[in-house]
């Protein structure tokens, strides 16, 4: 490739070696357009189709000088650009004069009908709730005249729906009500009238649901398919409507229908959503307690935390998400009566039959409340989110669909069987360790064990019953035996009688000899505790042998003799889990100094021994010997002196326990004095920061520490095996309940489309069905979609049982998954905002340049730069970078650095975090307001220059010397500055723009102009919650990106009749279910949708061009299952043979834009049609 030393909006020739891709190679001798920053832009042929211009923007000379100085400072100016092969094909014709007009038009096409139906519905009124309800299966329509009519389904354009479920019977719907402008409707399940739901033959699978068990909204009960001509655009509204949608019959058809769902809870969250800290404050207010300010952490950074209590206006414009709270917020009143709901939660079908009228009326009142909330929310939503793409995107996301087959049942069964086996093995291993520990009772050997010495080793005396009752029973027993012998003797012949008599005499002799042993049974209680107190189950009075100990038991880390860097773990009630470091001088301890402990040695004596311990392992014998050298005292020496501490708060206790002396050979979170002579206590690092206590060192957050040997079991090989087993089952243990309760609805062959049944791969013996993920389309403050299982599902790992979950979402025959991951979505959004603000050119900031042009190979990408700056791995740097982009501060970085390397001291972590932020975010300066400029002029400073905090203090100090400036000198920093700015870092310009948006009077996203939640608007929170507001700008813009892309994809699928539907979007990846014949056209459509979306961002930010590096997905995946990468075989403990050998599922394929263009010839029309 030709080396390029300089550029300035030039067209350059390049050449690339043939890599085997004929289409790609045929485009290698075209002209590449390089902008002023050295970034390759779109080919001019594509640029003219997208931006309606032939050339990009020409920058003035002073701007070019500014760009050169900035990039040169960060060693990025003049580097050779990476030249990509040319791309040239004809794009679909856009609607309107610009890309912005185009998106507005296609969004109107998709949502205008639904929007009009919503407005018509909310502008009218609804009838009064009927006084009596018809007790009959199916739908009943209630006329205003009082007449009731049995109907197939509510034939209305828009209505509110509320579905109730008898939880104890399963997931199937029990009752439902609906209301439109003209009528009320009620629906009753056949199960109320005696029909039974089929149950699975597999364990743990519960009921088997079919379409007959669900509510029909678009077809007759017995109808198996819904033809296109029968479909009608309808809008259904509900509060958390995804729960209701999961019980709608037609939503499980493979081919989607025209009905759409609007969630009033999602609308409320978008308009008035709150942060986690605000939620805690509302909970505290509701319960009458004080919110723990420490929970605020980095989510709300302010220079004056004491003012937080003064800024409470947000509490009047926000609430929790429940229907009762939302209705109270928007409609007033005292909330909705929810007492009857308990019958659905804990009652039976008989209870529902007995309370039918009251329960349907309760359901109807929820419909009425939802309608009243909708009437307030819709106008507010359309005002705050004016672009039609937002509504169209949310409507499209409400159609999520996950197909499954009978492999789902196999997955559940295999995972459960493996889980039970591993759990039993884990339990048995823990019992062995408990048995081993019990042996230390002999001669009180536990006192010399560094782990077990402080446990409760007391045992209970054996309880004996009185003997009176036993004597009577003994007599009865003897008589019974004698009677039995006599009866046997009577029935025997003469010779047999003699033999039998000898046996009976022998029996009587033995019976008399062991009579006392027989009687001892009557003296014992059925349950007796023979274990030490630490190993007893106090709720069951203890049992003989080890109890059912689990890895969550507090005694287990001690049984396994866990070490952290070779030091024994110890649990302190006030400080949580930590570890003890020996070698502390005796006179430094808080313990009773009048009593002298035997065998204590100095730090100098123990230091050589400590150096001999490996960082990766520890011999329990050596540790025990060291422990004995430090601690040979009675039990009173080892107890905690907590009388005074009990009255202190948690933070006061931690400060009191902090020690000023520390070992020179070890650094960690501490040390603390916990009253143990000769030892320092260091706390284990917590993922949420050093102020938080660790509750269980065997939790999933410490798996990586187990893997790298930091956290190690030293008891025996059994202990190591316990850690391995725990690592295997921890994922399934945490996700099991959510997975087992997924509602799977199975389809009969007549309910499948012909595309499935006519496929060569179709097998009548296989079952096909679907899961509808219960997605809240705007579930967080940033409008991110939320779902508890599928949107948080892990990728498959070899040591995680059940982690192949996503791969169990499998296409029916004749279909494929087509999808892609948006490359560095948030990073690009943040960088393009910074580029626009700084110089109006892609790649003009160091952050933007590294995002677009940086290479891992030469260390010019931002993750490699950060890793080099603070000496961490690139993967760790990626976590830090994303956290910083989301608004996290130095405290967050310090916490993460100490997690990455627990051997860092707090000071070292602080210095590294400060260095990293200085290089990336830059240093803070202030832009002065009118009062600040007056102060600057009066003290001899330039009034229009930016000043540092130190310079501002110097100005105030100088002003105090002059009486006329005394009033200015007394002003606070906030009173003298207009805003804070960042300078000198690679990301300074980006953060300046993000904070400018976050601090504006009405913060809104720069592309679709979506407003921030009322609970975070400056008028309601002042200058509080800046971290959350900065985070909102990037994250909410990412939601805009997703909405733009799926709206564009829906338009292309409709226009070119690409058979398929939206499946799911998980963070930055999107997946569609596409007919086999259309898979390549769908892949091209997805690439074009991404291109249009990126161009929309650039256009709205006045950057009327687009770098070719981000114009297209790096690859589009075409696969039969849902997985992160098409070449993942998803081997796990529950799927040891992988998908290919175990399930017969081959790998998918990934196609870049060049391969897709070769397959489709660059056209979205079917190839046969073109011929």
From TrEMBL:
> Could you state one GO biological process linked to this protein?
mitochondrial DNA replication
Domain DNA-directed DNA polymerase family A palm, by residue range, is 802-1078
Q: Which Pfam families match?
A: DNApol_Exo (PF18136)
Q: Does the keyword Nucleotidyltransferase apply?
A: yes
Protein location:
Mitochondrion matrix, Mitochondrion nucleoid
Print the keywords alphabetically.
Answer: Coiled coil, DNA replication, DNA-binding, DNA-directed DNA polymerase, Magnesium, Mitochondrion, Mitochondrion nucleoid, Nucleotidyltransferase, Transferase
The chain's coiled-coil residues are 405-432
The record's section on PANTHER family has: DNA POLYMERASE SUBUNIT GAMMA-1
Enzyme class per UniProt: transferase
Give the EC number(s) under which this enzyme is classified. Answer: 2.7.7.7
**Protein species of origin:** Megafenestra aurita
The entry assigns this protein to a family as follows: Belongs to the DNA polymerase type-A family.
Q: Which GO terms describe its molecular function?
A: 3'-5' exonuclease activity; DNA binding; DNA-directed DNA polymerase activity
Tell me what this protein is called: DNA polymerase subunit gamma-1
The cofactors named for this UniProt entry are: Mg(2+)
Q: Which GO terms describe its cellular component?
A: gamma DNA polymerase complex; mitochondrial nucleoid
